[in-house]
Design goal:
By secondary structure, the protein is an alpha/beta fold. The protein has helices at 28-39, 57-62, 84-88, 100-107, 110-113, 125-132, 193-201, 204-219, 258-269, 275-279, 292-297, 312-317; strands at residues 4-11, 16-18, 50-56, 73-78, 95-97, 116-121, 137-145, 154-155, 164-169, 173-175, 178-187, 221-223, 231-233. The chain has 3 domains: 4-201, Dihydrofolate Reductase, subunit A (3-Layer(aba) Sandwich); 203-245, no CATH class; 258-317, no CATH class. The protein is 29% helix and 21% strand.
């Protein structure tokens, strides 16, 4: 049975692929890339062959009416409904199957296989998940969207680092104020598994963080700050972590003062906004923001030394009351 490949466009950090049944970006470059990858026949007798594209019902419906079924490719729509052909008004040229496995068997039948070069899975989320778990999954063609969108409700699964490795990545392209790049992941070869892949990419949680830092450095917005150093930032991004197997993500770029991290976390949760409380415990990280010099320079001379105002601890307070910010000593 033939190997199949995946084609997907997903946001870089959250792996979002859809929102309310639609794709929130319109990129001609990505559409052309999708067409080229899924339409190009690699064998010599190209004139007599086509590629096949397998998709779920929702993915088929997300394609604009004038473009479906996808021209020049054998379309296969997955649905557990026996009446899906009538429901969607599918032409006879479109094949249907109840699962990915059934679709692959259908495309392997003698009458169909002789007309096919390559097979591509193009969505949606549940089909991608099943595909990634299959030993017949080949190359993943990923368009990495370097922008995050709110309210994404459909996500591409995390690519297993022990099964796939990044083999190519293009330069970043920008279109309609959206930056993106094309990445290719290939299955890991058995003899390369331990020496080349696991050692380098065994921590996908950390890789999310490193990728986000790279994205901020490349495309972040630069602003000045009170230190004169300035900041580079991006807003509206997110990272997703699994807390299974007693794993807790601790993100940092250097060795951390763990007692300070723990004390600060407890200080936040307690709803405290008084830097003196931390300072008395030897945790000085907020002292500068609560110093007399800084408060006076910031027009906050009415505050006592150490009174940080509505920082994180205050946000915890307002979860439980409707009081406005008065001072770090206010009992709320």
């Amino acid at each position: 049975m033939k190997r199949f490949h995946l084609v997907v466009a997903a946001t870089h950090v959250s792996q979002g692929i859809g929102r309310a049944g639609t794709i929130p970006w319109k990129l001609k470059g990505d559409m052309q890339y999708f067409k080229d990858v899924t339409s190009t026949v690699t064998k010599a007798n190209a004139a007599s062959l086509q590629n096949a594209v397998i998709m779920g019902k929702k993915t088929y419906l997300s394609i604009p009416v004038k473009f479906r079924p996808l021209v020049g490719r054998i379309n296969v729509v997955l649905s557990r409904s026996s009446g899906v052909r009538e429901e969607l008004g599918l032409p006879d040229t479109v094949l249907t199957a109840s699962s990915l496995e059934e679709a692959l068997q259908l495309l392997s039948s003698p009458s169909v296989e002789s007309r096919i070069d390559q097979i591509f899975v193009i969505g949606g989320a549940s089909v991608y998940k099943e595909a990634l778990e299959s030993p017949r999954c080949g190359t993943i063609y990923l368009t990495k969207i370097l922008k995050e969108y709110p309210d994404m409700d459909t996500f591409f699964p995390i690519i297993p680092a022990d099964k796939f490795t990044l083999t190519s990545r293009t330069q970043v392209t920008t279109e309609n104020d959206i930056s993106y790049q094309f990445c290719t992941f290939d299955p890991v070869e058995e003899d390369r598994f331990t020496t080349q892949v696991v050692q380098a990419t065994e921590n996908p949680e950390e890789q999310q963080y490193l990728d986000l830092i790279k994205q901020i450095l490349e495309t972040g917005v630069r602003r000045g700050d009170r230190t004169g150093t300035g900041t580079i930032s991006r807003f509206g991004v997110q990272m997703r972590f699994s807390l299974r197997d007693n794993v807790f993500p601790l993100l940092t770029t250097k060795k951390v003062f763990f007692r300070g991290v723990a004390e600060e976390l407890l200080w936040f949760v307690a709803g405290c906004t008084n830097a003196n409380v931390l300072s008395e415990k030897g945790v000085k990280i907020w002292d500068g923001n609560g110093s007399r010099e800084f408060l006076d320079k910031s027009g906050l001379s009415h505050r006592e030394v150490g009174d940080l105002g509505p920082v994180y601890g205050f946000q915890v307070r307002v979860l439980h009351c409707s009081s406005s910010m008065m001072s770090c000593l206010n009992p709320y």
